[in-house]
Amino acid sequence: MTTMNKMKYLALLAAFSASVCTAQTTATQAQTSSAQVLNAVVAVVNNDVITTEELADRAHSAALNLRRQKIQLPPMPQLRAQVLEQLILERAISQRARETGIRVDDGVVNATIEQIAAQNKISIAELRRRLSLDGVPFTQFREEIRSQIVAQRLREREVDEQIKIPESEIDAFLADQAGYNINDTIEYNVSHIWIPAHEGMSTEELNNARSTANDILERARDGEDFGQLAASYSKANDALDGGNLGWRTLSQMPTAMAAAVRDARQNASKIAMNVSSDGFYIVKVNDRRDGVQTKLAGGPVTQTHARHILMAVTPVTDEATVLNRLSDIRKRLTVDKEDFATLARLHSVDGSATRGGDLGWLHPGDTVPAFEEAMNKLQPGEISQPIKTQYGYHIIQVIDRRQEAMDAERMRYMARQILRQRKLAEATVNWQRELRDRAYVEIRREEL
To answer: Alpha-carbon distance 42 to 44, whole Å?
Structure first.
């Protein structure tokens, strides 16, 4: 009840107490009924619940995120179903974290939020205001930050630390690379949709998954918006980002996805599907380009000593604001001759900020393609315009270049990193699925 309504009721109370009491009782009953509907339980996850209010808040945030990326929104029932699955997985992860003793106290969350505000040069009050303009409650924002920290710590313990790369695998990988040709260094801008299917499913569930995947494939080839289909149906973590993976080589993709990309290259629609032991991969090749020279070539390579300043687009700092700030910083560097390291420490959100943005000596392939392409065009001492990558916007300065031979130890290190990233992606998907499968989940469809 608003303040104005309360004042009216107080005025009426003096003269018409009996009638007002009746009105207040009726209003209170209506509010209680409305609150009960708003806070109805939509899902039970073990000993925890997800309410319709929480689902509505997160669906609103997901819709804002898709609109920022100019991805057409899926029908609201499908968007709500996708968001609900994310919330269920978050509950399962947080419960597992509690079981294993992982805690993230308010101090850590507060410090993280303060860091976000500081990086964007705004106060906590201004952060609250901007979130409010987007219709995102600050309490919801806090809990999402907490959940992200918890999930990262748990994954590091249960997945990252368990990944081992035997020397024999590195030997086999290096031997396989000996047959590289120019097509193996092509990079693809890929979007994907993943429909899970595995041995633990019943025959009916497997048939439903296959039918869903075939239907999506046909609709995508008929011209439906791929990003919208991903947001509607994909069970991958990036579903609500339209399923876009950015630029990757075939060796950086799961085996089934790489096979689908190979098929898609031959298809007029650039869309194909492949099936593996964990499900159906539907991919769309958005673009292709020549990649960096093979990382494992044994001859001399050009190394670049570079530094950068990174600023990220966030819910409270839009793209235009980031570009304006970086343009101002570039002017201070090129015209006012301010110190690069000092500005990097003050403004960069990358881990290299404490080193003045210094990335050290970089080999080909050490950075993402968009960064490397821009860096390679710079002369020593030159500073780039703002460059966009999947991490945000960068200003890059090349300090020096040199020619060095790619020694055997470096080759093995890079091979290990490629194999680790490949295994980590697959292991994370399996870990999440196992957590979801172990949880007792009851979805109350009537509340959706």
So the answer is: 7
Taking 50 as the pLDDT cut, the residues of the chain under it are 1-37, 180-183, 292-298
Locate 147 and state its tokens: 């959940």
CA 363 distance to own-chain centroid: 26
Amino acid, single-letter form, for residue 195: I
In the numeric block, which tokens belong to residue 188?
Answer: 């693809």
Q: Which helix (H) or strand (E) holds 336?
A: none
Q: What is the DSSP string of 119-184?
A: HTT--HHHHHHHHHHTT--HHHHHHHHHHHHHHHHHHHHHTGGG----HHHHHHHHHHHTT--GGG
Report the pLDDT value the prediction gives residue 177, as an integer from 0 to 100: 62
Sequence letter at residue 307? R
pLDDT of residue 185: 62
Asked whether the whole model's pTM tops 0.70, one would answer no
Q: Distance between CA atoms of 223 and 72, rounded to whole angstroms?
A: 13
Radius of gyration in angstroms for the set of CA atoms belonging to the chain, rounded to a whole number: 26
The token pair at 119 is 């990086």
| Strands, E assignment, 207-346 | 244-249, 271-276, 279-290, 300-311
d(CA 352, CA 395): 13
pLDDT of residue 184: 53
What's at 95, amino acid-wise? Q
pLDDT for the residue numbered 173: 78
> Biggest alpha carbon distance in the chain?
95
Nearest of 229, 287, 230, 291 to residue 261 by alpha carbon:
287
